[in-house]
């Protein structure tokens, strides 16, 4: 299975970014690691996210991997916060996340 995953570095990176989003949501739910189920799931998602990211680092440039990983996490975290946590949806936030996504797309095209 690991050989299959290493052949798809962008897929691994996408999974790593989604897992990053998952662990940041769970980190909020853990309430400072005081809620056991959320804390355990958060730590598991962190480990899985780093593992998938490490697979993508076998073939993709480090700077690209890290920027895309954080870009996915930041964008998805923002969307989650707006949709599920009642965070404000403002023009400035939308423009900024579009800039993040444009940078992620540019890094993919340049790799």
Task: Describe the fold and architecture.
- With about 110 residues, this protein is an all-alpha fold.
- The chain has one domain.
- The protein is about 80% helix and about 0% strand.
- The protein has five helices and no strands.
- It has helices at about 1-5, 10-30, 35-55, 60-85, 90-110.
- Helix 2 runs antiparallel to helix 3.
- The longest helix is centred in the middle third of the chain and has 23 residues, at about 60-85.
- The protein is flat, with a radius of gyration of 15 Å.
Structure in a nutshell:
By secondary structure, the chain is an all-alpha fold.
Give the overall shape, derived from the CA principal axes.
flat
| Number of domain modules | 1
CA-CA gap between termini:
25 Å
Helix-residue proportion:
over 70%
Give the helices and strands as they follow along the chain. HHHHH
Rg, rounded, reads 15 Å
* Structure summary, number of beta strands: 0
Q: Largest sheet, described in full?
A: none
pLDDT averaged over residues = 90
* Number of helical stretches of at least 4 residues: 5
Low-confidence stretches: none
Strand % is under 5%
Alpha-beta classification: mainly alpha
């Amino acid at each position: 299975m690991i050989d299959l995953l290493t052949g798809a570095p962008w897929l691994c990176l996408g999974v790593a970014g989604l897992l990053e989003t998952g662990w940041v949501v769970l980190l909020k739910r853990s309430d400072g690691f005081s809620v056991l189920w959320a804390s355990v799931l958060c730590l598991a998602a962190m480990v899985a996210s780093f593992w998938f990211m490490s697979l993508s680092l076998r073939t993709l440039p480090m700077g690209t991997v890290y920027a895309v990983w954080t870009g996915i996490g930041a964008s998805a975290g923002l969307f989650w916060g707006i949709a599920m946590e009642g965070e404000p949806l403002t023009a400035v936030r939308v423009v900024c996340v579009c800039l993040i996504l444009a940078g992620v797309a540019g890094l993919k095209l340049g790799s």
